[in-house]
Amino acid sequence: MSNAQAQKSVLWDWLTTVDHKKIGIMYLVAGGFFFALGGLEAILMRIQLMFPNFDFVTAQTFNELLTMHGTTMIFLAAMPLLFGFMNYIVPLQIGARDVAFPFLNSLGFWLFLFGGVLLNLSWFLGGAPDAGWTAYVPLSSEYSGTGIDYYVLGLQISGLGTLIAGINFLVTIINMRAPGMSMMRMPLFTWSSFVASALILFAFPALTVGLLLLMLERLFGATYFAVDVGGNVVIWQHLFWIFGHPEVYILILPAFGIFSEVLSTFSKKRLFGYSAMVFATLIIGFLGFMVWAHHMFTVGIGPVANAIFAVATMAIAVPTGIKIFNWLFTMWGGRIQFTTANLFAIAFIPSFVMGGVTGIMLATSAANYQFHDTYFVVAHFHYVIIGGVVFGLFSGAFYWWPRMFGYKLNETLGKWFFWLFLFGFHLTFFVQHFIGLMGMPRRVASYLPGQGIDELNFVSTMGAFLMSVAFILLVVNVIVSVKNKSEADPWDGRTLEWAIPTPTPEYNFAQTPLVRELDALWYEKTHGNGKIKAAEPLDDIHMPNGSILPIFMSLGLFLASFGLIYQVHPVTIIGLAITLGAMFIRSIKEDHGYHIHKEDIKKEEGVG
Amino acid sequence: MDPHVTDPSAPLKGKPSKKAERQLAREGKQQIISFVFMIFLTSIAFLTVASDTIPNRFAIPFILIIAAVQVIMQLYYFMHLNERGNGWTNIMLWTGFFVAALTVATLMLLIGVTKY
Residues of A at the B interface (Cβ-Cβ below 8 Å)? Predict the structure, then answer.
C-alpha cells in the first residue's frame, strides 16, 4: 500500500476518480448539460406551436423533439441531477467516508454518460427516436427508423448505470451509517433516497426486460409484439408502466427529501411529524408499484381492472397529503427565512398540490376517457415534475451549493431567477389545462386556427421563454458568484453535512462522528458545544484508489451498441471484448487502496 | 486483533466457548430435522405423481405448494436467513417477491382476451 497518492493531472484525476463527491459533481454537470438540451428541445416545440399552422419545424422533427425532450428530461436530466445530490450529500448525512462501493459508483456514472451520449448521437446519425418517450409498440417496433435502436440501447446502458447506483445507495445507507445514526435518526433526504433506491432496484428490471424484448424484436426478428404471429402489443405497455410509474416516485421522493431538509432548516424548527414523514415515504413507495395501469385506462383492460387501479391511485393522495400537512406544520410558528432555496420549497407546495388535484381527476377512470392524450395530461405531469422535481433540484442546488462548491449563489439574482421561473412555469402550463379540455391532443405538430386555442398556445409559449430567461439567469449566477466564498455552515444547518470544514476534505470526516439525536448537528448546537463528538480516535484513513476501468467498461458497451445497431458484428464483439476485458482486469488485479496519515489529517484540519 | 475483522474466512483458533458449542449442537439438530422433513416432502411429491389415484388437477397445485415450502425451508434453515442480522435481506427478498408476483399475476389476468 502506498502512503499517499502521487500528484496527477486534474483531468486524469476526474476521469479516474471514485470519490463520491467528485462523482456527484460530475453527475450534476452532465445532468445540467442534458437539462439544457431537453430545455432547448422544449423551446423549439413551443415555438412551433406558437401560431396555428406554423412551419418552424417539420412534423417528423417535431416527433423527434417531443420524444427526445421526454426521454432526456426523465433519464438524462432529472435522475442524474438527483443522483448528483444523493452522491454528494447522502454519505455526508450519515457520517460515512464514501459510498459502499466507490468503484461501482464511478461505473454507474460512466454508464449513464455513455448511454446518454449514444442516445443523443442519433440526432446526427439518421434521425432521433420519434415514437414518444414511451415508445409504444407496434409504432416503435415496426414503423420507426434507427432512432429507436439508439433509444433502446442508450437507455439499456444508462439504465444499467442507474441500477448499479441504486444498489450502491441501498448498501451504503444500510451498512455505512455512523455510530448512533439509527434508521429513525436519518435525515429525511437520506430516507427518501433510500426508498427511491429500493424503487430503482425493483422497477428497473421491468424496463430492462421490456427494452430487451424490443431490441430482440427490432434487431433479431423476434415476434413478442407482432400480432400477426401471435404476439401481444399490450405486454410492452404493461412492462413499460410497471417501470414507468415507480419511476415517477424515484424522481419525486428525493425531491420531497430536499424540501423536508430545506423547510426545516429555514423555519429553524425540527421537521414536524418526522416518523409520519418516513412512514408516508414508505407507503408511497409501496403503493407506487400497484397503480401502473392508470396510464392504460383507455387501452381496454376492463372496467373492474380500471376501477381497482383507480382506487389504488387515489389512495396515494393520502400519504402525500400527510406530507403536505407536515411541511405546512413545520413552517407553522417557525422563524421562516425567505432564501432562494426556501422560496422554491414554499412555492413547491401549492404548485405540487395543483398537480396532485389534476392527478386525482385523471385517476377517475371514467373521466380519463375524456382527458386521455390531451394537453390536460401534459399540464398535469409538468405540474408534478416541474412543480415537484425541478423545484426540488433548484432548492437543493441553492441549499447545498456552499457545501459542494465552497461559495454561495447570489441571493438577489437567485430571487430574480425564482420569480421569473415561477411565473414562466405557471404561464406555460396552467393554460395547457384548458387547451387540453378544449380538445387539443398532445404530441401533435400543429393545429388549425379558429378553435379557441390560438391565444392560449401563444401564452404558453411566452411562459416557456420566461423559463428560459430564468434558466440563463441561473447560469449567470453560477458564474458571477464564484468569488462569494462561504463559511462551512452558512445556513445554520441541522444535519451532519454542515459539520465538516469547507472545502469538504476528501475523507469527509477526520474522525467518524457520534450521532446522539435526530438533526445531529442541531442537537450539539443546543445541548453540546456545537461540535460533533467523535466516535473514534484520530487515525490513518484508508482510501480507495482511483481507476480508469469504468470508462473502458462503458466505452465497450457503447461501441458494441453501434455494432448492434448497424449489424456490424465484428464491432459488437470488439466492444464486448473491451468491456469483459476491463472486468477481467478488475477481477484479477489486487487493489488495496492507500492510507492518508494522521499527521497529514492534523495538518489539514488545523489541529495538533 | 481478531483476524476475522480483516479476513472473515480465516480459520478459527482455539476451542469454541460452551455457549457456541450449545448453539452449534442446536443448529445441527435443526438441520437434520429439516433435512428429514424435506426428504419426506420430496417423497410425497413423488408419490403424488406416481400414484394413479390422484388426479392431475389436484397433483399440480399440491406439488407447487410443497415446492414453495421446500424453498422457504431451504432459505431459512440451510441458508441461515432465520438468524439475526438478516433483517434487510428478508425485507428485500420478500418485497422483490411481492412485486414480481403482483406483476406476473396481473399480466396473466390483464393481457388475455377476457376483460375484467
Answer: 170, 174, 198, 201-202, 206, 232, 234-235, 238, 242, 289-290, 293, 300-305
Question: Which of B92, B102, B115 is the closest to A301 by Cβ?
Answer: B115
Asked if CATH classification 2.40.10.240 holds for the domain at A10-547+591-605, the reply, yes or no, is no
Cell numbers given for A97: 467516508
Asked whether A94 and A178 are in contact (CB, 8 A), the reply is yes
Instruction: Break chain A into its structural domains and give their ranges.
Output: 10-547+591-605
Residue position matching grid coordinates 462503458: A554
Chain A interface includes B54 (CB < 8 A): no
Contact A30, A81 (CB under 8 A): no
Residue B23, number of CB atoms within 10 A of its CB: 12
The three-state secondary structure class of A533 is strand
- Which residue carries 393520502 as its cell? A318
The strand pairing partners of A595, in sequence order, are: A542
Please give the interface size between A and B, counted as residue pairs whose CB atoms are below 8 Å apart.
Answer: 39
pLDDT of residue B16: 76
Name the residue in chain A with its Cα closest to that of B96: A202
Rounded Cα gap, residues B41 and B48, in angstroms: 11
Give every CB contact of residue A153 below 8 A, 6+ residues apart in sequence: A115, A118, A215, A561, A564, A565
Report yes or no for ipTM above 0.90.
Answer: no
Alpha helix segments (H runs only) across A389-441:
391-405, 411-437
pLDDT in tens, A144-165: 889 999 999 999 999 999 999 9
Contact A264, A522 (CB under 8 A): no
Chunked into runs of 10 residues, chain B (116 residues) has average pLDDT values of 57 77 86 90 90 86 92 85 82 89 85 74
Interchain CB distance below 8 Å, B110 and A289: no
Give the burial class of A559: count Cβ atoms within 10 A of its Cβ; 0-12 exposed, 13-18 middle, 19 or more buried.
buried
Give me the mean pLDDT over the A406-419 stretch: 96
Residue of B nearest to A241 (CA): B103
Q: Calculate how close chain B gets to A377, using CA atoms only, in Å.
A: 24
Burial classification of residue A369, based on how many CB atoms lie within 10 Å of its CB (0-12 exposed, 13-18 middle, 19 or more buried): exposed
Q: At residue A118, does pLDDT exceed 90?
A: yes
